[in-house]
Write a structure and sequence with these properties.
This protein is α+β, with helices and mostly antiparallel strands. It contains 14 helices and 10 strands. Strands 5-8-7-6-9-10 form a 6-stranded mixed beta sheet. Strands 2-3-1-4 form a 4-stranded antiparallel beta sheet. Strand 7, helix 11 and strand 8 form a beta-alpha-beta unit. The protein starts with 5 loop residues before the first strand and ends in a 10-residue tail after the last helix. 2'-deoxyadenosine-5'-diphosphate binds next to loops.
Length: about 400
């Protein structure tokens, strides 16, 4: 059960006018949900038509768009367990007459065409709506009440995928600790500033359209490498999946390092299962995931990075002009939360300068750089079958 499920709630123009914003905020807050976005906004017709696209054929569609466009709406993102379903319960049924008393629609309106509020109806539509209404991204802050709201809330710093306020700075990771030298991304790392290579040889295992669409539209992307054989990195897949939820305006894509398509596909059948040996309560991989036939894409990244191998745990941030802005190598013992990745993602999305760790110190021997370490280390996890967790 995800504690980071998000729903998109919108208070309609009449709800804003009648002072319902505070009422709705108070309900979500007092119930224990965390606010990740809140703004008063005058939408364009175009945006409203996209939001209500599934109703385009309905008779009431033109009226609905006109009414929604008649004044500002208040846009909100609420996060927590069952946010979508509970949000719908709080708002009430589509028709006010069918809404129970105690719900917003049940208490405060009469006519379906003036039903005061919108709430996402599924986790997937919530993510699409959040990306549509909050292209600038969401607010990241750690909720100090979490352990009072949930029996099993992780302490913010132990969440693994980040989540708490980042302490990252030059040479320092999100957990506030100095980054071991072999994991530091120095400013003169070869791949930084390079153009992302073609991804057209990828064979998508899931959500391919989403990734292809993002590539064609020049969306900011995160690309990470994973492998069915690299069990120590399954956690990275979970953490990337969680990051993707926190940064809905960024398109995530996981590329497999497996030699066989069947192996890569097999890992995706494990979604939802617990992997105690990997310290994973419930395996998540809720982003586009691709098999890389003949490791062609891998080879292109490898040549760009001028390294001997690009292995599981290798992650990059790529901007809208396909330029590789950031890379970090994570491992089975060096997690996303230990590094600078999420802070860089935040800075990047918010238009701030990225953390710069300076050039690689000169006195070092011609040591292998971080990404090689990953590639070699990970082979140790390969045992071919992968069923013994
Ligand atoms: P909901 O808002 O409960 O998700 P919906 O997605 O089916 O309901 O419809 C979106 C909005 O369209 C709804 O909040 C109000 C309007 N609407 C729906 N059915 C309508 C009808 N029969 N006449 C007028 N407006 C309607
Ligand atoms: Mg709806």
């Amino acid at each position: 059960m995800s504690l980071t499920e998000q729903t998109y709630i919108m208070v309609k123009p009449d709800g804003v006018q009648r002072g319902l914003v505070g009422n709705i905020v108070k309900r979500f807050e007092t119930k224990g949900y965390v606010c990740r976005g809140l703004k008063l906004f005058s939408p364009t017709k175009d945006l409203l038509e996209k939001h209500y696209a599934d109703l385009a054929s309905k008779k009431f569609f033109p009226g609905l768009i006109e009414y929604m466009n008649s004044g500002p709406v208040c846009c909100m993102v609420w996060e927590g367990m069952n946010a979508v379903k509970e949000g719908r319960k709080m708002l009430g049924a589509t028709k006010p007459a069918d809404s129970a008393l105690g719900t917003i629609r049940g208490d405060f309106c009469i006519d379906v065409g003036r039903n005061l509020c919108h709430g996402s109806d599924a986790v997937e539509s919530a993510q699409a709506e959040i990306a549509l209404w909050f292209p600038e991204g969401l607010q990241k802050w750690s909720d100090h009440s979490a352990t009072w709201v949930y029996e099993d809330a992780p302490a913010p710093a132990a969440a693994g995928g980040g989540g708490g306020a980042s302490k990252a700075g030059p040479g320092v990771g999100g957990n506030g600790k100095d980054i071991p030298e072999k994991y530091i991304t120095y400013s003169d790392t070869t791949i930084l500033g390079a153009k992302m290579p073609e991804l057209n040889t990828l064979d998508y295992l899931q959500k391919g359209d989403e990734a292809k669409d993002a590539v064609s539209k020049g969306k900011t992307m995160v690309i990470f490498f994973w492998g069915k054989y690299a069990k120590g990195d399954y956690k990275l897949v979970v953490h990337m999946s969680q990051l993707a939820k926190r940064w809905p305006a960024v398109q995530f894509l996981g590329i497999s390092c497996d030699a066989e398509r069947g192996d890569a596909a097999k890992l995706l059948t494990k979604v939802g299962s617990s992997m105690p040996e990997q310290g994973i309560e419930s395996f998540e991989a809720d982003v586009p995931m691709a098999f890389d036939p003949e490791k062609k894409a891998n080879g292109r990244f490898k040549r760009l990075a001028m390294v001997t191998s690009v292995g599981p745990g290798y992650c990059m941030i790529i901007d809208g002009t396909s330029t590789i802005k950031w890379q970090e190598q994570f491992t089975s013992s060096y997690f996303v939360a230990d590094g600078q990745f999420e802070e860089q993602l935040r800075r990047f999305t918010e238009g701030e300068d990225l953390i710069a760790n300076g050039p690689r110190p000169e006195d070092e021997e011609d040591e292998e750089i971080a990404c090689d370490v990953g590639g070699d280390e990970f082979d140790a996890f390969a045992d071919g079958d992968g069923d013994d967790y």
